[in-house]
Every structure is written in structure tokens, then in C-alpha cells.
């Protein structure tokens, strides 16, 4: 355990010593890697999953979508840089827990709270005047493709990031919890935009935000605003 603590502290010390040019390079490289990982995961599941497509065919990939998805990578990098600035300025502090139970609870808290925040943020994005300005482009993907997760207005991308940073300002989550949560977030977003149901049908009963759950939102924009779970949609009457 002490060895793990020392190793983690060493990594954090390394990041602490980064110059801002190094932070910029690191944020861009890491977010490009995650972008490519998401695309690869989507294509792998799409090729290996034997379930029938949820919709007849995937949304065609366009040059505009590619450009917008790459700009989303830049926006995600900007959010990371803001987080690094807040950390180095002392506004964000990282907890040092190594307890598996504590880490699990922190991850669960991040998932539930971010799901709640994203529900309201997503609902607000569907208000008519907001929708026309920032969210309509994403919903051109009535069916989805491997870029759909990243076809977002910059305000949406930065808004999601600022919600996350707000939670980090309010509580000292551990670096491990944050890292695991962010990985889950990427995988969940990728799975949520598949054109095949990834989860067993029974998962709907367990309040999981399945692929079908989010696909229904793309078909009916008045329903299913949650991301990880269907809890808030069921609670607020927007579940389908």
C-alpha cells in the first residue's frame, strides 16, 4: 500500500512541476488519445456485437462533424487546463484516500451528482432558444455514428467540464476516483451513442442509462435527458 501511495504522489509531483507549455501538450495529447480510444471502442463493439441495430443505419460521417468533434477535443483540453490551474492555485485539492470503499463511494457520488447536473443541463439545452443556438447540431444525429459523442457545441463541452470542476471545488476527491470516473464517463458516452444495444434488456429495470435509453432520446427529444441512469427521468416524468 505504501508503495502505491509513493508512486501516486510521485506522479502528482511530476504534474505539479509541469510548465504551462507542458500542460498544454499533455492535455492535447491525452485528449486526442481518449478521442481515438472512443472511436476504436465504438467500431470494435459495432463489429463484434451480434445484436440488431437500433436504427436502420448509422448517421453518415461528414467533414463538418469531424471538424466539430476535433474542436470538442480542444475544448476538453481547455477544461483540463482550467482544472490544472485551479489545482496549482489551491482552489482544488486532491484527497489522499487509498481505501477501496472510500474510492468506490467517491466514484458513485460523482456518477450520481454528475448525472443530476447533466440532466438539468441537458434539459435546459432543449429549451427552444437554447436548442437552436447550441444543441441542434448534436440532434442532427437521429441515428448515431462513432463521432456522435463528440459532435457538440463548445458551450456544451465546456459546460459539462465546468460542472465537473464545480464538484472538485466542493470536495477533495482523490486522483484515483477522478481518473476512474472520467474513464467510465468516456466509455459510457461511447456505449450510449452506439447503434446497437450493449446492455442486457434487464438493465432497464436497474435504472441504468442503457444504449436504448439514450437512443430513444435521439428519436424523441422530450424524453430521457439522463446520462448514466434513468433515475432523474423517472423522478421528473421524462422517462420513456
Question: What do you see in this structure?
Answer:
The structure is a single chain. The chain has 9 helices and no strands. Helices cover 64% and strands 0% of the residues. It has helices at 2-16, 20-48, 63-88, 100-125, 128-135, 154-170, 175-192, 211-219, 231-236. Helix 2 crosses helix 3, helix 2 packs across helix 7 and helix 3 runs parallel beside helix 6. It is an all-alpha fold. The protein starts with a helix and ends with a helix. It has one domain (19-236). InterPro entries: Fatty_acid_hydroxylase, Sterol_Desaturase_Related. The chain crosses the membrane at residues 20-45, 66-87, 107-125, 146-169, 175-195.
Broad structural category: mainly alpha
Helix share bin: 55-70%
Oligomer description: single chain
Shape verdict: globular
Rg (C-alpha, Å): 18 Å
Report the mean per-residue pLDDT as an integer.
92
Q: Main sheet, how many strands, which sense, barrel? A: none
The span between the termini is 46 Å
Number of domains: 1
User: Helix and strand succession?
Assistant: HHHHHHHHH
Number of strands: 0
Amino acid at each position: 500500500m505504501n508503495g502505491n501511495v509513493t508512486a501516486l504522489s510521485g506522479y502528482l509531483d511530476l504534474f505539479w512541476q509541469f510548465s504551462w507549455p507542458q500542460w498544454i501538450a499533455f492535455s492535447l495529447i491525452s485528449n486526442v488519445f481518449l478521442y481515438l480510444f472512443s472511436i476504436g471502442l465504438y467500431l470494435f463493439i459495432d463489429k463484434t456485437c451480434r445484436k440488431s441495430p437500433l436504427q436502420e443505419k448509422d448517421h453518415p460521417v461528414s467533414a463538418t462533424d469531424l471538424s466539430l468533434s476535433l474542436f470538442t477535443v480542444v475544448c476538453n483540453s481547455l477544461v483540463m487546463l482550467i482544472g490544472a490551474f485551479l489545482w496549482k492555485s489551491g482552489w482544488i485539492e486532491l484527497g489522499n484516500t487509498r481505501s477501496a470503499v472510500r474510492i468506490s463511494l467517491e466514484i458513485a457520488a460523482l456518477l450520481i451528482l454528475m448525472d443530476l447536473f447533466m440532466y438539468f443541463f441537458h434539459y435546459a439545452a432543449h429549451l427552444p432558444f437554447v436548442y437552436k443556438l447550441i444543441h441542434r447540431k448534436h440532434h442532427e444525429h437521429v441515428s448515431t455514428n462513432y463521432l456522435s459523442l463528440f459532435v457538440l457545441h463548445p458551450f456544451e463541452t465546456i459546460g459539462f467540464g465546468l460542472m465537473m470542476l464545480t464538484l472538485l471545488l466542493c470536495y477533495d476527491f482523490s486522483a484515483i476516483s477522478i481518473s476512474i470516473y472520467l474513464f467510465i464517463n468516456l466509455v459510457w458516452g461511447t456505449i450510449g451513442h452506439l447503434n446497437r444495444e450493449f446492455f442486457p434488456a434487464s438493465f432497464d429495470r436497474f435504472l441504468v442509462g442503457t444504449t436504448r435509453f439514450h437512443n430513444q432520446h435521439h428519436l424523441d427529444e422530450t424524453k430521457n435527458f439522463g446520462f448514466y441512469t434513468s433515475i432523474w427521468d423517472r423522478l421528473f416524468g421524462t422517462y420513456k
